[in-house]
Amino acid sequence: MSITATSPGADAGHIESAAAQAERLVPLLAERAAEADEADRFVAENYALLKEAGLVEAGVPRELGGGGAGIRDLAEMLRLLAHGCSSTALAFSMHTHQVAVPAFRWRHQQATAVEPLLRRVAAERIILLSSGGSDWIGGSGTAEKVEGGYRVSGRKVFSSGSPAGDLLMTGAVLHGEEGDSVIHFAAPMKAPEIRVLDTWRALGMRGTGSHEIAIEDLFIPEAGVSVKRRAGEWHPLFQIIATIAFPLIYAAYLGVAERAGELALAMAARKPPSEDRLALAGRMETSLRAARLAHRWMVEAAERNAPSAETVNDVMTGKAILAEHAIRAAELSMELGGGESFLRSNGLERLFRDIQGARFHPLQSGPQARYAGAMALGLPVSRIF
Fold first, then answer.
1. Is the pTM of this model over 0.90?
2. Which of 57, 77, 235, 343 is deepest in the core (most CB within 10 A)?
3. Dihedral (Cα; 307, 309, 312, 314), 10-degree rounding
4. Taken in order 270, 272, 278, 284, is the CA torsion positive or negative?
5. What residues does the Acyl-CoA dehydrogenase/oxidase N-terminal domain cover (predicted)?
6. In this structure, what DSSP letter does residue 127 have?
7. In whole angstroms, what is the distance from residue 236 CA to residue 201 CA?
8. What residue ranges define each of the domains in the chain, with the CATH number in brackets?
9. How far apart are CA 18 and CA 98, in angstroms?
């Protein structure tokens, strides 16, 4: 089946939304989901579909050649993709937020320095990788100052989509007499100093290609450094990232929980009704409703277009609520489905495994609770991450 993307230059009234295009892909993604999971195989064919459908550039402003999708439409796109393939949605959320962050900076902060990157995404459909698993507030890897720039080395774990990546949006720690700092830069994945290590063997989300990336003595010119910040504390850039990225990433997990619920209801409908099944279905639906409400809260916080410590708190509180209830909904879906939900052939146990990933993105439960508590008590949060 061929997917035809709507031209970003078409009349605005005739541009199909990113979510509508994603919905058309769901059956195709679903056909391959089990195979990718069973073989620990990256969903490369699905990335080809995403490119063909124009979803790679969906978040690029229309003025720069993209689809001009906002946070809400991008989140809906990812939620729907997860109904077809969890791994595709989660891996693609990493590219999507790496586009949405510079798009926000271009539109709301007049950051013209990000324009060439956004134009490349639109024109060439390059894939951006996130090394968020390694490069949270503390940073990782090492940078050594040399003439004209830096020499960088390190290992970047959980780099979802790495087999398809063109640019790794990452950083490295520079040790100095006045304390450590972190430099941020885009590393070309085709550079000989960069290797993707075949390490992704996981409980769930097996098709995300979240391999470890090794960087060995890569030269980054001074002009290639986009941001330099103090290590180990929140920076305004990370307030933007946290506010924008997590409504997108967790849209994928919401979609996984919803799909698990759909399968469980279909299984239950084939059996005689009972009071216990009614109760299980009701509890599952209640958890799903809580997850949806939490996600709506996250999206609304991002749509204020004013990232701050407060929006980080709102998004991360929503994330914690969504994760708890999405995981609980998946657990209840297994119970509602009964013994057949334990069989791999029905797909429900795969979704149950996939949803467990919602536990592990920052802020994890401990730091999130401490951040929320410090905010409530009017205490500093700059080093809580």
1. yes
2. 77
3. -100
4. negative
5. 29-103
6. P
7. 34
8. 12-126 (1.10.540.10), 142-230 (2.40.110.10), 236-376 (1.20.140.10)
9. 16
